[in-house]
C-alpha cells in the first residue's frame, strides 16, 4: 500500500503545480470574485429595480445561471466566446481565445448570479427608512445607494461573500473539463505522465483542504468581529 | 456570426444506431436523475446522523461529526470524485481494489457514493441549524416528561427540525442534480456528458447545449414547484422558514 508510494514525484513537480497551477487558480479566483461582485451588485440593483424590464431580465439571468451545472456553463462559454469574438471583431472565422480569458468569463458571469443573490439579501437587510431618509434630504438614487445603502450592505455581507469566494476557489477545479492547467489540472497532468495518480490526487486534496479550511476559519473569526461591532 | 444552425439534428439517428440524438439526451437525463436520487438517499441518511451528532451532548461525537463536515466541505467535489474513482481502488487491499475496478457501471456507483457523502455534509449543516433554531425548552420538556434523549430527538426535535429545513433541503436537492454533472469526469454519461458527446459527433455545439440547458431548466421547475407544494403542506405555523442556505452549486 503506502510502502510503494513515490512521494518524490510530489517534490519533483512542486514548482510546476504551484507556480503554474496554483498561480492560475488563485488569479482566476481573485479576478472572478472581483468581477462577480461588481456584476452581481449591478444585477442585484436591477433585480430590486421598480422598472419591470430590468428586474425581469436580472431575475431571468440569475435563475438561468442557477439552474445550470457549472460544468455545462464552462462548455457553453468555451464554445461561445470564439464566435462572439468573431462577431465583435468582424473576423472571418471564430477567433481563438486563451484559457485564462475563457475561464475568467465563465466564472465571472456564473458567480455573478450567486453574488447577486447575496447582495440582494444584503441590500434588503438595510431598513427601508434609510432609503426614504436619503430621498427626503434630496439625495439621488446613486448617491443614496453609493453612500448609504451599499456600504452597509457590503459590510453585513462580507462573511457570506468570502464564504462564496471559498466555494468559487474550489469550483475553479472544474476547468479540468476543458483541459486547463489550474492547480488540479497541473497535478493531474503529472499524475498521468508519471502514472502516480494516488500520490498526486491525495496531495491535491490535502492542499485544497488546508487552504479552504484555513480560509473558512478566518472568515468565521471575521464574522464574530463584524457581529460585535454591529 | 457564421454558424450553421441545424435544429433538425435532434431527430437524426445517433451513433448508437437505435436512438435519435434527442433520445440520447433523454438517456443522459435519466442517468442524471438516477444518480441524483440515489445519492440523495445516502445524503439524507448520513446527513441526518451527522447533523444529530453535531448537536449531541457527547463532545467526542460532536467533534467527529464536525470533522466529517469540514472534511467533505473543504475538498472540491471534483477532487473527491477522483479520490473515490482513481485512488480508493489503489489503497485498499488488492482483491477489493480489483473487484472495484471491474465493477460494471463503476462510474455510476462511484458518483452516487461520492455525491451522497459530499451532500450529507451539507444536509448535516442544515439539520443542525434546524435543530438549534428550536427553543431549548423543547428539548428540556421532552426530557422532563421522561423521554430518553433518543426519544426526545425522535418524537420532539427531529419532526420539527425537518419541517423547518425543508426549503434549504430543496436547494440541496437541486444542487445534487447539478453536481451530478461533475461525474462526467469519471465517465458517467449523464445529461451534460450526453450533450458533450452529441456536440463531438455532430459539431452542432449550440443545439446540443441548448437541449441540455432546457432539460435542466425543466428539471429545476418541476422540482421547485413540487417542493413548494410539499413546503406549503408541511410548514410549521408560526415559524418563518430559515434563511437562504449557504451559497453553493
When the domains of chain A are counted, the total is 1
Ends apart, CA distance between termini of chain B: 32 Å
Q: Write the CATH homologous superfamily of chain B.
A: MetI-like
Mean pLDDT of chain B: 91
What is the N-to-C succession of helices and strands of chain B? HHHHHHHHHH
On the 0 to 100 scale, the average pLDDT of chain A is 91
H-E string of chain A: HHHHHHHH
Regions of chain B with pLDDT < 50 over 5+ consecutive residues? 242-247
What gross morphology of chain B would you assign? flat
Instruction: Sketch the major β-sheet of chain B.
Output: none
Q: What spatial form of chain A do the alpha-carbon principal axes imply?
A: flat
Low-confidence regions of chain A: none
Enumerate how many helices of chain B there are, as a single number: 10
Level-2 CATH architecture of chain B: Orthogonal Bundle
The rounded distance between the terminal residues' Cα atoms of chain A is 53 Å
Helix content of chain B: over 70%
List keywords for this structure.
heterodimer; A: 230 residues; mainly alpha; MetI-like fold; 81% helix; 0% strand; flat; B: 249 residues; 10 helices; 73% helix
Helices and strands in order:
The complex is a heterodimer of chains A (230) and B (249).
Chain A: H1 8-47, H2 52-67, H3 70-89, H4 99-124, H5 128-136, H6 141-171, H7 183-193, H8 197-229
Helix pairs in contact in A: 1-2, 1-4, 1-6, 1-7, 2-4, 3-4, 4-6, 5-6, 6-8, 7-8
Chain B: H1 21-54, H2 59-73, H3 77-91, H4 94-102, H5 106-132, H6 136-144, H7 149-164, H8 166-179, H9 191-202, H10 205-234
Amino acid at each position: 500500500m503506502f510502502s510503494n508510494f513515490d512521494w518524490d514525484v510530489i517534490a519533483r513537480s512542486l514548482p510546476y503545480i504551484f507556480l503554474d497551477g496554483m498561480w492560475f487558480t488563485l488569479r482566476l479566483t481573485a479576478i472572478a470574485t472581483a468581477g462577480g461582485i461588481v456584476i452581481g451588485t449591478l444585477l442585484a440593483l436591477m433585480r430590486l429595480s421598480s422598472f419591470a424590464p430590468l428586474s425581469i431580465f436580472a431575475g431571468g439571468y440569475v435563475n438561468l445561471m442557477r439552474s445550470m451545472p457549472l460544468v455545462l456553463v464552462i462548455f457553453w462559454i468555451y464554445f461561445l466566446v470564439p464566435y462572439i469574438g468573431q462577431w465583435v471583431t468582424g473576423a472571418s472565422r471564430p477567433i481563438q481565445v486563451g484559457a485564462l480569458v475563457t475561464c475568467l468569463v465563465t466564472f465571472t458571469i456564473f458567480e455573478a448570479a450567486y453574488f447577486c443573490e447575496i447582495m440582494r439579501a444584503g441590500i434588503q437587510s438595510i431598513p427601508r427608512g434609510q432609503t426614504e431618509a436619503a430621498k427626503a434630504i434630496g439625495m439621488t438614487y446613486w448617491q443614496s445607494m453609493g453612500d448609504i445603502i451599499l456600504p452597509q450592505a457590503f459590510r453585513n455581507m462580507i462573511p457570506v461573500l468570502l464564504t462564496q469566494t471559498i466555494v468559487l476557489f474550489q469550483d475553479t477545479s472544474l476547468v479540468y473539463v476543458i483541459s486547463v492547467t489550474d492547480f488540479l489540472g497541473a497535478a493531474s497532468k503529472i499524475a498521468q505522465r508519471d502514472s502516480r495518480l494516488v500520490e498526486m490526487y491525495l496531495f491535491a486534496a490535502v492542499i485544497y483542504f488546508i487552504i479552504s479550511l484555513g480560509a473558512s476559519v478566518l472568515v468565521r473569526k471575521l464574522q464574530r468581529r463584524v457581529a460585535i461591532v454591529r | 456570426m457564421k454558424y450553421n444552425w441545424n435544429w433538425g439534428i435532434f431527430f437524426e439517428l445517433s451513433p448508437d444506431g437505435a436512438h435519435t440524438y434527442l433520445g440520447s439526451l433523454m438517456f443522459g437525463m435519466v442517468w442524471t436523475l438516477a444518480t441524483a436520487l440515489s445519492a440523495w438517499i445516502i445524503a439524507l441518511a448520513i446527513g441526518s446522523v451527522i447533523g444529530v451528532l453535531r448537536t449531541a451532548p457527547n463532545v467526542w461525537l460532536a467533534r467527529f461529526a464536525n470533522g466529517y463536515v469540514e472534511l467533505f466541505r473543504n475538498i472540491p467535489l471534483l477532487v473527491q470524485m477522483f479520490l473515490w474513482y482513481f485512488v480508493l481502488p489503489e489503497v485498499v487491499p488488492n482483491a477489493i481494489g480489483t473487484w472495484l475496478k471491474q465493477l460494471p457501471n463503476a462510474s455510476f456507483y462511484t458518483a452516487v457514493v461520492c455525491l451522497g457523502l459530499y451532500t450529507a455534509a451539507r444536509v448535516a449543516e442544515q439539520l443542525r441549524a434546524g435543530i438549534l433554531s428550536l427553543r431549548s425548552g423543547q428539548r428540556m420538556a421532552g426530557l422532563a416528561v421522561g423521554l430518553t434523549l433518543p426519544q426526545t430527538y425522535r418524537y420532539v426535535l427531529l419532526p420539527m427540525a425537518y419541517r423547518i429545513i425543508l426549503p434549504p433541503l430543496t436547494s440541496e436537492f437541486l444542487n445534487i442534480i447539478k453536481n451530478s454533472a461533475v461525474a462526467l469526469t469519471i465517465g458517467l454519461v449523464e445529461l451534460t456528458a450526453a450533450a458533450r458527446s452529441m456536440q463531438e459527433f455532430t459539431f452542432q455545439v449550440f443545439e446540443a447545449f441548448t437541449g441540455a440547458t432546457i432539460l435542466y431548466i425543466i428539471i429545476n421547475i418541476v422540482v421547485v414547484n413540487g417542493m413548494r407544494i410539499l413546503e406549503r403542506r408541511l410548514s410549521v405555523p408560526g415559524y418563518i422558514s430559515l434563511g437562504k442556505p449557504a451559497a453553493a452549486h
